[in-house]
Amino acid sequence: MLTYKGYHGKVLFDEDSGLLHGEVVYLRDVITFQGKSTDEIKQAFHDSVDDYLEFCSQRNEEPDKPFSGRLMLRLPSDTHRKVYVRAKKEGKSLNEYITEKLSLEN
Q: Which domain holds residue 8?
């Protein structure tokens, strides 16, 4: 995973073209880049992020930001209590417990 100015890029190799293709992830907007080597793909990623930020600036638009990882959640108080008790029984913080339960890998 590439990181630049708070943006994250995912890179895949296309065997047919012999190129590395990348996409900035965790955004609603689509930002792509490509290169033939690791140095080229890193530079293309940086250039694409910079171009995106410049494009947004020229249009006086706020650029899309990657997800912060913070999620505000409101629960009924009885549900909150039950989840808290389950987390404590497993020796976990409420955040750890909920993150584990929401993980797509489980």
A: 2-58
Task: State the DSSP code for 20.
Answer: E
65 assigned to some structural domain: no
Across all residues in the chain, what is the average pLDDT?
Answer: 92
Residue 21 placed within a domain:
yes
Confidence (pLDDT) at 66: 80
Q: Is residue 19 in a domain?
A: yes
The pTM of the full predicted model, rounded to 2 decimals, is: 0.65
Please give the average per-residue pLDDT across 58-80, as a whole number.
88
CB 2 within 8 A of CB 42: yes
Find how far residue 35's CA is from the centre of its chain: 21
> Is the distance from CB of 32 to CB of 21 less than 8 angstroms?
yes
